[in-house]
Amino acid sequence: MIRLKNIILVSAFAAGAFAPSADAETARWVVQPIYDSVEQLSDDLYKVKRAGKTSVIDSEGRMVVASADSITPFSEGLALVMSSASEGRMRLDRILRADKSVATVADEAYVEAYPFFSEGLLPVANKGGKVGYVDQNGMLAIPFKYSNPHPFSNGLAAVSKGKGFLKKMANVVGAADIIGKDKVFYINPLGGELKLPKEIGDIFLGTTFKDGEALVINKARQYCIINTKGQLVRIEPSVTLRFDERYALTDLEEPSQTVVTKRRIDGPDVFSEGKLLGYRKGSHVIVPAQFTDAEPFSGGRARAARFGAYGVLGLIGGNVSATMKAGALAATGPDVESIDLEIVMPKEYAGTEVDVEVTDKDNKLVSKVSDADDGSGRHVVSLMLPKGRRTVRVMADNLEVWNSSMAGGSASSSEKSQSDSGIKFSFSSTTLKANSKDAASLSITISNSTSETISGPVKMSGATPSVKSVRIPAGGKKTINAYFSKVVKKETRTVTISVGGHSSSRRVTLQPFFNF
Fold first, then answer.
1. How many whole angstroms separate alpha carbon 26 and alpha carbon 214?
2. What kind and span of H or E run contains 415?
3. In the list 87, 156, 385, 477, which could disulfide-bond 447, CB 3.0-4.6 Å?
């Protein structure tokens, strides 16, 4: 016997039985959407911000680092947990490891020019400005007695004994204006100094080692290339001083490398419906469009924002099925029909209350009914529906899991058009972090499931495409890059790509490289 739970009077649509396909998945929040931002630090850790404070949680929403003013990305499996200090300085309080353990920093230490570990050591300054290095346990490994520190590489780091940190420089040709008055020398992890030959003499600029070599500039303004033994390899007649994020010399033609956490895209695709985003597999909708921001799934998890608040979705097996059929109650008039909505939720939602919301053609809420779960995952809601089409939504745990537009599992009109055309655009991410050159890149894969080759110019707004045209054979795919420049602050840009009369858009959040 059907349980008559709730009776409401709302506008109707034609009754019928609607259920997702048997192999469908759905999702639920594993981290509730309560944060101003969510950034993935590792496979199992997320940096979240709320009310001006930064925390770290795991993929189940459990707190790992409760509160901080700033937390850096992982480098060598280590992230810096810092608090704001006077004069705009950032004090290093703790070190977060990838295994979720946390080390407390023993000494008062401040992070400045290079906020990452390199070869197990991090340059830090004391309150007076003298610089040393701490290890991954938060202990002072090299005492506070230097200035102008650089990251360790190939077992050595350039330092001096002048005042403070050397400011980062842009690309420069010529040494006269950039070398300082303080003598530079290289130290090993034990603090021992690297001896240079007399033919080089004292040096006043030394880059970070890369591939066993570093550039040093001596008092005579000579561009000397040395190896890790301190031996002179060669003298260059001129050098363009272009540095990477570790202050190593880099080639002008070297391609820009975006600093991001690599994500393996392995779940449902993101689709758009108007200004909102959802998830679908093929033409079947997995989670209806409701998000203002949505990343592709990776490892069963995806960052998404609903009403501007961020959380993390987790894929679950099973179906959310909804069956509409003639109601057990008699209709109250000729313009009204009785409908029973039977909802069956996956086992992961067992015990979770569901809300049935009905909106009119202007998306205005007409009625809302809540129904508790007895543990079976089955809900029955009885409705009295005036004739006329309206939208019915099923909500559970702050997530819309089903709506009446999913009848038959159809995609939105814009995505259905794209799917029917046989051309599909897949974006690798919706959040990017720039490199030290304030540049970032996004991969876009174009799949051609038609029986014909598509070709033509690549038109792109919001970014610069890596190629001017493409040719994709029937059944083939092509991945191109969208390049972003001048990423000096957190911002959102919309990327639109068009090829052969087919197009797609995605909002991308860009983070600057130095973003404490």
1. 53
2. helix 413-421
3. 477
Positive or negative torsion for Cα 158, 163, 164, 165: negative
Q: Token digits for 63? A: 């707190």
The amino acid occupying position 45 is: L
Please tell me the distance from the alpha carbon of residue 312 to that of residue 59, in angstroms, as a whole number.
8
Three-class secondary structure assignment of 488-512 = CCCEEEEEEEEECCEEEEEEEEEEC
Residue with tokens 């038609």: 450
pTM over 0.90: no
Three-state DSSP class for residue 206: strand
Task: Classify each residue of 70-83 as buried b or exposed e, where b means 16 or more C-beta atoms within 10 Å of its C-beta.
Answer: bbbbbbeebbbbbe
Determine contact, residues 320/20, Cβ cutoff 8 Å.
yes
- Which sign does the torsion angle of CA 291, 295, 296, 301 carry? negative
Do residues 498 and 456 touch, judged by C-beta distance below 8 A?
Answer: no
Mean of per-residue pLDDT scores for the chain: 83
Task: Give the count of beta carbons closer than 10 Å to the beta carbon of residue 496.
Answer: 14
Contact (CB, 8 A) for 109 and 89: no
Strands 172-173 and 140-146, bridge-based pairing: unpaired
Query: Which of 87, 50, 49 minimizes the C-alpha distance to 511?
Result: 49
H/E run at residue 323: strand 321-326
Give residue-wise pLDDT tens across range 71-86. 999 999 999 999 999 8
* Secondary structure element (H or E) that encloses residue 366, with its range: strand 365-371
For 181, other C-beta atoms within 10 Å of its C-beta total: 8
Which H or E run contains 68? strand 63-68
Helix H or strand E encompassing 420: helix 413-421
pLDDT of residue 46: 94
Strand, helix or coil for residue 347 = helix
Give the H/E segment covering residue 305.
strand 301-306
**What gap in Å lies between CA 102 and CA 84, rounded to an integer?**
19
Q: Which of 391, 384, 312 is nearest to 62 (CA)?
A: 312
C-alpha to C-alpha distance for 406 and 290, rounded to whole angstroms: 13
Mean pLDDT of 271-275: 84
89-131 pLDDT tens trace:
999 999 999 999 999 998 999 998 899 999 999 999 999 999 9
The DSSP 8-state label assigned to residue 408 in this structure reads G
Q: Which structure tokens are listed for 484?
A: 């972003």
Identify whether the C-beta of residue 403 lies closer than 8 Å to the C-beta of residue 386: no
- Could you give the angle at the alpha carbon of 384 between the alpha carbons of 379 and 387, nearest 5°? 125
